[in-house]
Each structure stands twice: as structure tokens, then as C-alpha cells.
Amino acid sequence: MAILSNRLSKEQFEKNFSDIHPPFETKDAALVEANRCLFCYDAPCMKSCPTSIDVPKFIKQITTDNVKGSAHTILSSNIMGAGCSRVCPVEKLCEGACVYNLMDEDPIPIAKLQRYSTEMAMQKKWPLFKRKESKGKKVAVIGSGPAGLSCAHVLSREGIDVTVYEKEKQGGGLMTYGIAAYKVTPEFCKDEVDYILSIGGISIKYEQELGKNVHLTDLQKEYDAVYLAMGVGLARKLDIPGEQIEGVVDAISFIYEIRNSGFSKVAVGDKVAVIGMGMTAIDAATQAKRLGASEVTMLYRRTQEEMPCTEVELDIAKLDGCEIIWLAAPKEIKGADGKVNEMVVEKMKLGEPDQSGRRSPVATGEIFSLNVDMVIKAAGQMPYQELVSSNQLENNGGKLKVNNNQTNLKGVFAGGDCVNGGREVVDAVQAGKDGAADILKFLTS
Amino acid sequence: MADISSIFLGIKSPNPFWLASAPPTDKKINVLRAFEAGWGGVVWKTLGSQVKNVSSRYSAVNYGGHKVMGFNNIELISDRPLVVNLKEIEECIKLFPDRAMIVSLMADNNRESWHELIKKVEDTGAHGFELNFGCPHGMTERGMGAAVGQDPEIAKMVVEWVMEKATIPVITKLTPNVHSVVPTGKAVVEAGTNALSLINTIQSVTGVDLDTLVPNPYVDGKSVFGGYCGPAVKPIALKMLTTIAQNQVTNKVPVSGIGGVSTWKDAVEFMLLGASNVQVCTAAMKHGFRIVEDMCEGLNNWMDEKGYKKLDDFIGKSVQNIVHWEDLDINYHHVANIDQDKCIHCGLCYIACEDTSHQSINLELGKPYNNYTIKEEECVGCNLCQLVCPVSNCITMVEKRVAPEYVNWIEYQKRGLPLNDH
């Protein structure tokens, strides 16, 4: 038992990390599905999309050979429509609301059709948006994730000059660094960011981190407005003994590593425990398995009823061979020679509903142990509490407080995960649009 | 089990499904395959003057992902040597003596040519003729085909020539490229034709290629008007058939129904409106001859279900149900009803009614599903919502008579009953 890299052959890695939801192979295949769409009025799919993409319209446009129009329909509502078509939990959003579900028929594969149009737009580099003439106003955006880029794009369309400060070497935020590689590849993320930036008027300064080499007070002086979209970054600690032992990693770092290095270079244990049952936990568990771990066990304090991930995501983990233990809370991590070799777990039962409305886990006192050599923590991420507090930004446990997307500091706006604590990519895109709208009002008032 | 065998002008066939005169009936190999598949008869592709065909020959109209909703062709009559056709016709009759063999004819416009052709074809043992007065392309430029059918006088003259010579039954095929098929129909019945068939194809342009700007079908950068057929033309064919079935002169002869027949249901509709049998082409060209299996089985099952023992039990039964508008009952009224248990909340009924009809559907916003209900007092009973609803029997029309007695428009006016005030 050990944490090792290079567990599989190149071919196995390629197979394990190939596209989990492959695109339509042909135009005809896309048309079969597009033609099934009923073109609902005030469509439930559209109303279930946080960015309100006009789904019936873009699908209809595919059927009329107006794919350019289709891509424009999607991207004008959601500039990351290409990425969202791969990472959105559509089963609980657009596709989950498709009226075909009410006929017990398969819903329209909206995501796959969205991918069809947007991928063509990216491949053909269609210039779908034209930037208005520069208005001579400058806005700084912190973070080039979905919220930041979405905000920047809306602003640039309106003739605002935008500078984005990004702490990483590449844009895209969690889309680029925080999502399973079998959903989006780093190359795709780079192409998507490039396509978004092709409108012009947006410059990104890489490896510029707020609080380190960029300071809010300077930005406030230099720009007409600032948009904070730095997301959440810090993995939530388990606060149990043994958390510092070698072999305990957080899921965000683990996934970051997978996305930053080649698959063969990422070390993974033989027997891995993953703590948590959110989307990130699933992405970590499935990828640990796909990197060659022989056993992956997911531990969750509550039951399937309360889990944050969708059934579809859970099924991916199950199909990958991950074990799931419900009502199991980590108690202690033990090691030998400074390396993890045991995960001590306490059995839980469900108690009264907590603040989230979900029944809360209650300890039973019953203890059991798992023989593991790696523990991946995916118990959520924490907002940058220290950073925001030190900048005199009002916050709620690190989550920025905003009023019409503006923080307590005049001209400093915020949106996305750093405000809501962490939601879907598509929510962040909408936050960016909303933020941009309020910034535009601010700049013209 | 019902008897679906058919006798048309004394010509027997095991079922009322004939293949129309067209490319599928151009050669022995095709016709034998059709008979093996179970077709009741064929109308052999038109024989007549020497022609040469071009390529391409067909084009289609696709709709909503369905291919060949409509179809057109610019193929002329048979371009094979007459002797070869005659030899093959004879061979097919010998191999399948229980099937109907009708031969379509289009001779040059003189008595001698028609008489000569009739003689040669009768020698094959064919059971009947069908006179092609309908072909709308190519042949018309030579004064044949639809050029004959469009002029009752010429049509009458040609039928008279034919009847002088023919000793087997004669069907005259009518062109739909006229204001009404009745004048020519009457003329040829008066000239002695034993039966009518309709419709031939409708002159058409199926579309224009948006890259080359050349309309379809494409022949080296040019196109011509083609004959339109397939499911899209069925409603037009049914209307024309009904006018023939209702005319006191033309309804004295049997009619073979043609025009977009694709299924047993289409066939039954043609027969209900007066056709004694039907002819099929496009559906077979799209799917092959095997479609006749379900046509026979479906017809049989329907007849059993309705208690019809033989075809004559239902042929023509719907003819009387098409009347003049002025005979319709103005007191009849129905309103739409939406079955809320079946509704899938697609909103198609609502937007159709709201944008293009009478604003009779109430919208109750919901997330993500809206609820839709009928405003009965606003509903004019137009059926639009029911037609666009994707769920069977979700929207039904509920009868709400204005008054119990029958009142038609003439009577309505006479009595000075109220008109709409909105």
C-alpha cells in the first residue's frame, strides 16, 4: 500500500479520462433530437436555467440550419454556454424540467445540443458579439472564473475597458482547475476562455492575487469600479486528529493537480477514503479510481436523501466502483511512519432538521475503521474570510454581503461563489451578468 | 376475418392496393417483386411515344425531421423499347394470374397511334387500360399528358378514339392541374370511359438550393416544374375525389383513388370518399413494397372491428358527409377542455390561441410549470389548441350546443339571429 503515480498505462489513462458525455457525432444525430423538441411556450427548461437560456429557440435554430444563431442565443444568455453544456447538473436544471419527463419519456438532451452549437461556434471562431466603442471607463475584475469572465464580457460588450486579475496561470477559475477531467479538459477550458476574450476590450493579468500582489485600495484608485469574483478557495478542515499526516489531501488540490499535471504524474493511494458527497467529492472519488486506486470509499455523514450531489453524479461514482458508506463521519486519521494507514469512522443517525432544512447527523458512538493509505477531504470550501475582512468588506462568515451586487465599499461590486459560498458554474455566470448590469448603472449614474 | 378482395370493372385482385403507374412499375423485375410482396395489382408505367429521361429525376420536401413529406418527379413515360415492355407485361401476367395488370397509355395525339398502341397492349393479355391524361411535365410540351386532361374537349376526343378500339376496361386518369377535375371527368365519362382515377401529380417546385440557387430537382444547373405527390398531396386528392363522387355524371363510374396513400388508414379514407380501390406510389418508393403487408392487415382489422364484411360495405360512406357550407348547423358549438392530469404544461395550446386565435386559454404562471385552462365563454371551438397539443386526448372538444334545433346560415339570416358583436 502506498501513494503512487503512474499506476496505469497511457491507453488506460486516456480511456478513463475520455469524454463522459460524448458529443453528437453527426449533424443528423443532433437533428433527430432537436426535432423532438416541442418548442414549449414559456418553457420550463428555460425557466430552470439560472441564466435563462432560451432553450426552445436555440434548439429550433439547430433544426433550421441556423447554428450560428443557435450559438448566439445560448451565448448571449450564458457566455460559458459551451462549458456549462459539459458541467451543468442538467438533470436538476433544464433537462430535469423538460416536459417529456411528464410523459415518462427521455427529456430532450439539451446539454448535448447546446454543446453541438457552442462547440461549432468555438471551432469556427464565429465572432458573435461586437464590442461597442470604448466609453473610456475602466473596471477591474478579480478572478477569471465564470463570474468574472461573464461580468467582463457583458462590460466589454458595452464598451467598458476591463482588466481581469487572475492568480493562476490560466483563466477559467474552477472550470479550468476544479472539475473532473472527463467532463472538461484543460485544453477545452483554454479554448473557451480564448473565445470569450476574442471580443476584445478585456485584458487578463495572470498570477496576480488579491491581497498578495494586487491590492483593493490600489484598484479602487485606478479603476472606475471593481468586481470581486475570486470564488471560494480554502478547503474546509475536518478538525479531527491526524488531519496533518502525509496522505491526507483536500479534493480541490487533488483535482487541481490532475488538471495541472499529466494523469500519469498524479499520485494516488491504493485504498482511498473520500470525505463528503458533493459534486467535488464525486469528482475526486471517481478520478482517484480512474487514476488507478484499487478501492475508493466515500463517506457521508447523512443519507442519500440529503446528499448535495445529484443522482446522476452518484451513479457515476457507483459505476466507477466507488463504495459508498452513508451515515459515516470521520473521527480520526491514524498513520504509521508518518503515513496514513487507518481512517476511524463513527456511525451516525439522522436527527432533527438543521438550518439547511436537511436532517442533521447525530453521533451514535459506534466506531469502525477503514484500512486506507490516502484520505481526500471534500467537505466543502471556505470563503476567503481573512482576505475580505482585512479589506473592510462586510461579510457573513467570509461570504461577501452585497446590495444590488455592490459591497459596502462604493464602486466595489461582487458576485459568484465569494458571495453565495459556492454554487454551480451556471449560477456564477448569471451572477456575473447581474453584477455587470449594476456596474453599468453605477458607471452611468 | 373480413374479405378485402377487390373487383374493379370486373378485374379481380386479392386486395384493393395497386401500384400506380410510375417508376416502381416500369420493369418486370420490379413488378414481380411487388407481386411477391403482396400487391393486388399494378398499373404498368405509361407506354407511348419514344422519350429519353434525364438525371436527376426526383426531389422531396422534408418537414420537422421527417423525410419525403412531399415528393416530386420529372421523369417522363417509360423510356424502354415498347417490345420489351410488352414482353415483360405478358410474362408478369403469366406468373401472377391472380393480380390485376393495368397498362397506362399515352399515345401521340392521333387516332391511329392510339389504336395501334391499344392493339399491341391487348395482345399481352392485360386486364385494362389507364389513360394518362395527367402527366404534368415534359409530355405536356408535346401536347400530351396533362395538356389533354386540362382540356375537356380534347380529352373527350381521345377517349372516344380509345373506346372505338379497346375491348378491355378503360380507366381515365385525371390531372389535378385544373381549377376543377369535374369538367374533364364529365367529358370523359360521356365519351365512354369505364372508370376514372385521380389524382395525377401536381405541378410544383419543391425548393431551391440556397448555395447553388438552382431549384430542385437539379439537372446540370437547371430545373423544371415537377409532379408533386406523397403524403402532402393527400388532402387535395381527397377533395378532388369527393367532387367526382358527388357529381351525378362522374359518380356513375368507379374511381381508383390516388394521391399520397401511404397507409391502410389513408386507403380507407379514399374509399370512404368514393374510391373503389387505391393506387400507391410514393410510399412504396420511400419504404419498398413491404408496406403492403400492414396495409392489408390494418384494413382487415379495421373492417373486423367495424363489422364490415367486404369493401363495398363501406366504400363511399363518407361522401354524403361533405356538404355545402350553407348546410352546416350554426347552432352546433363545442369548446375545448384540457385534461389537467394529462397536461404536460408545454404551453403550445396557450400561445397558439393567444397569438393567433381567440385568447381563450387562461395562463397561471408557475415555476417551472405553468397551468393552462380554457376560458369557455371565449372559446369559439376552433380546434387549434387540440391540433397543436402533443398529448393524445389531453385536449378534447366538448359539445355545448347553442340551441337544440338545426339552423343553417340561410335560416339564420331569415330569422335575423344575432351576429358577433366583437
Could you explain the architecture of this structure?
The complex is a heterodimer of chains A (445) and B (422). Chain A has 445 residues and is of the alpha/beta class. Chain A has 3 domains: 35-124, Fumarate Reductase Iron-sulfur Protein, Chain B, domain 2, CATH 1.10.1060; 138-233 and 383-444, FAD/NAD(P)-binding domain (3-Layer(bba) Sandwich), CATH 3.50.50.60; 235-381, FAD/NAD(P)-binding domain (3-Layer(bba) Sandwich). Chain A has 18 helices and 17 strands. Chain A has helices spanning 10-16, 27-34, 44-47, 55-63, 67-77, 81-87, 94-97, 110-124, 146-157, 174-177, 186-197, 216-222, 251-260, 279-290, 311-319, 385-390, 417-420, 425-444, and strands at residues 138-142, 161-166, 202-206, 225-228, 234-235, 248-250, 271-275, 295-299, 323-325, 328-336, 339-353, 359-370, 374-377, 381-382, 395-396, 399-400, 412-414. In chain A, the strands form 5 sheets. In chain A, strands 3-2-1-4-17 form a 5-stranded parallel beta sheet, with helices on both faces. A 5-stranded parallel beta sheet of chain A has the order 6-13-7-8-9. In chain A, strands 10-11-12 form a 3-stranded antiparallel beta sheet, with no helix packed on it. In chain A, strand 1, helix 9 and strand 2 (161-166) form a beta-alpha-beta unit. Chain A is globular. The N and C termini of chain A lie far apart (64 Å). In chain B, helix 3 (111-122) crosses helix 5 (152-165) and helix 5 (152-165) runs parallel beside helix 6. In chain B, 44% of the residues are buried. Chain B folds into 2 domains: 6-321, Aldolase class I (TIM Barrel), CATH 3.20.20; 325-415, Alpha-Beta Plaits (2-Layer Sandwich), CATH 3.30.70. Chain B is globular, with a radius of gyration of 24 Å. With 422 residues, chain B is of the alpha/beta class. Classes of the chains: A alpha/beta (445), B alpha/beta (422).
